[in-house]
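Example A, followed by Example B.
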Amino acid sequence: MLLSGAQPRDGKAPFVSALGSGGFTIYLLHPLVILPFRERGHIARADTHVELLALMVCGVPLAATLGSPWVRRLVQPLTKPPVDWLFTRPTAPAATETPEPDLSKRLEKRSASHPDSGDRSLTYG
């Protein structure tokens, strides 16, 4: 419901719907922005109601920016990489014109010259 009490025609609040569609991107990217402030101690020092309110107010434009269509499009290779190749079946290799050597020729018996040849008189090539 909008603040004015009037419902939009399609039953959705446009800003909230747009922000919600970028939720995954917001979730993945917000630590990159927040971590430097947290490591410098800016977030831990916020102890008054005004400072905490300022942090919350800064979070809304941050979420709106990270959830915007142009940021989502920019980071799409990282957040939604193309994985169609995982679901395609490999194609059979093309038939070659050169025939395979005959199996009987590959298994042709040859005498071996081993020093301890005892009962090992045949090898396969």
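Example B, a separate protein, is given below in the same form.
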Amino acid sequence: MEKHRGTGREANAYERVLAEDRRVVRGTFRVSVGGAHAGLAVTVLVVSLFAVVGGALWALVVSGVVAFACVAALFLVVHRGRRGSAAVTRAYLLTFGWARWL
């Protein structure tokens, strides 16, 4: 491929800026198992709060929604090609990994 003085340099600078932006976005949305554990703890706390304030029915509704989200995440992960414990770990991170942003 022939290099042009102005065009090649502009494209490379543009690609470097895009790569840096992608790296920042990946770092922002990165989740960890520790963050997922914190998300699970917050979820258990919220379900317990619903049980105390709203009764057992509301606690069942909220926990059912969380269970549905976990099963949907597991289905999505398995559909995308992960298997076994890697699929369960990824579904756990997808379901409860939001706590890092609190």
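On Example B: The radius of gyration is 21 Å.
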